[in-house]
Inverse folding.
């Protein structure tokens, strides 16, 4: 059994190494399509709290999906031979944009979980509180991103 595993793992690793750009492109494309579909589907729905949370989540997911390909494209076009010596402000800016969307995804997913808990516990005031807090997720994510950039 161990010999089959030892033979199969290197073959799988070499396959992934060869096809990694294809795998990455396919997963990024599927993620962008899924986030776009979620955004389009949630815009058509009534303005209930969950639908608005899904809109915020779709925008943050779409941004999170697009940050890395945009980074790779800019590096390839502007600094094709830079290797590891990219400008520090560019690196901080690209990392900060990635963290902005990541923080927003975490904030919205936490809000969705709080909404599910409030619904399960039949708390009547919690959805109003969550609805009033939803627009402040972007500024909170920006503040957390600024703290992260400051701590670098």
């Amino acid at each position: 059994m161990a010999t089959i595993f030892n033979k199969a793992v290197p073959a799988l690793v070499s396959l992934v190494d060869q096809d990694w750009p294809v795998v990455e492109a396919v997963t990024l494309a599927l993620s962008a399509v899924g986030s776009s579909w979620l955004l389009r589907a949630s815009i058509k729905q009534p303005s209930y709290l969950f639908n608005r949370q899904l809109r915020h989540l779709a925008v943050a997911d779409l941004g999170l999906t697009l940050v890395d390909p945009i980074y790779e494209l800019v590096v390839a076009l502007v600094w094709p031979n830079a290797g590891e010596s990219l400008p520090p402000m560019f690196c901080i800016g690209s990392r900060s944009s990635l963290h902005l969307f990541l923080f927003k995804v975490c904030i919205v997913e936490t809000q969705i979980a709080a909404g599910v808990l409030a619904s399960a516990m039949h708390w009547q005031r919690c959805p109003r509180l969550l609805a009033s807090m939803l627009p402040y997720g972007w500024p909170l994510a920006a503040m957390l991103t600024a703290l992260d950039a400051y701590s670098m």
Q: What stands out?
A: The radius of gyration is 20 Å. The mean pLDDT is 85.
